[in-house]
Amino acid sequence: MAILYEKKDKIASITINRPEAMNAMDPDTYREISEALIDVGSDPEVWVAIITGTGDKAFSAGADLKRMHQGGGESSMATIWNPTKVPRFDQGFQIWKPVIAAVNGYCLAGGFELAMACDIRIASEHASFGAPEVRWSILHGYGALRLPKAIPLSSAMEILLLGDRIDAQEAYRIGIVSRVVPHKELIPTAEKMARRICENGPLAVRATKEIAIRGMNTTLDEGLRLYALLNRMIHETEDAREGPRAFVEKRPPQFKGR
């Protein structure tokens, strides 16, 4: 298995498990990550996911260029970039449950794209980020679409066009990550954030994520119409009645996701 996938207490953990290759992603890794995210989206017992890499050197160094250039079949460059039967995280697949990236080292190329596919990104102090594809005349496609929407355009273009790496503090300064923590605190911090999200109404969390993501590509009027539609749906749920009731009764709410 190219990844480790575990579920516990409403939190799913997806760990890229190719430390011998700096957690570079071959076709199996892309498929397994995407399958795990599909499962996260469909499992009612999972409310939040965390993605990280094995070890302390790399979140992911990107696509496995060695396997991509070994010839035909499953390892060919055409195969790794063409859509497969499994919707890929970097080819438009979307889930509305929150996903946290715990970046534990090198976060480059396709690994950077995976981090950008997540909703919250936190980094260890020695993490670094980059889109070096242009150095090898390869396109950083999905990331080039996401990055300018996450940080100022000039900062995004510097990363995309120079192909150089930036360190964790610079990534924090320009807004790629929301926190930088000591390495030993990385996973505990991600888990604490996930547990905190799980205390909130899960249906409201997912609807809020959908409004935020769709709102980046729509007009205000269209966004408000989406909000009105989702608000009506949430208003009819058990959780929407439980939340105000718990507030009045001065107790923690017991949400059920329905």
Set out the fold topology.
Layout: E1 3-8, E2 11-16, H1 27-42, E3 48-53, E4 58-60, H2 65-68, H3 77-81, E5 99-103, E6 106-108, H4 110-116, E7 120-124, E8 128-130, H5 141-150, H6 153-162, E9 165-167, H7 168-174, E10 179-181, H8 186-198, H9 202-215, H10 220-235, H11 238-248
Parallel strand pairs: 2-3, 3-5, 4-6, 5-7, 6-8, 7-10
Antiparallel strand pairs: 1-2, 8-9
User: What Rg do the Cα atoms give?
Assistant: 19 Å
Task: Give helix and strand order, one letter per element, not per position.
Answer: EEHEEHHEEHEEHHEHEHHHH
Q: How many E-type strands?
A: 10
Strands side by side in the biggest sheet: 1-2-3-5-7-10
The amount of beta strand, in percent, is 15-25%
End-to-end span in angstroms? 34 Å
| Main pleated-sheet profile | 6 strands, mixed
At CATH level 3, the topology of the largest domain is 2-enoyl-CoA Hydratase, Chain A, domain 1
Number of helices: 11
Domain count:
2
* Secondary structure: helix percent: 40-55%
Any guess at the CATH architecture of the largest domain? Answer: Alpha-Beta Complex
Silhouette: globular
Regions with pLDDT < 50 over 5+ consecutive residues?
72-78
CATH class of the largest domain: Alpha Beta
How would you state the average pLDDT, rounded?
Answer: 90
| CATH homologous superfamily heading of the largest domain | 2-enoyl-CoA Hydratase, Chain A, domain 1
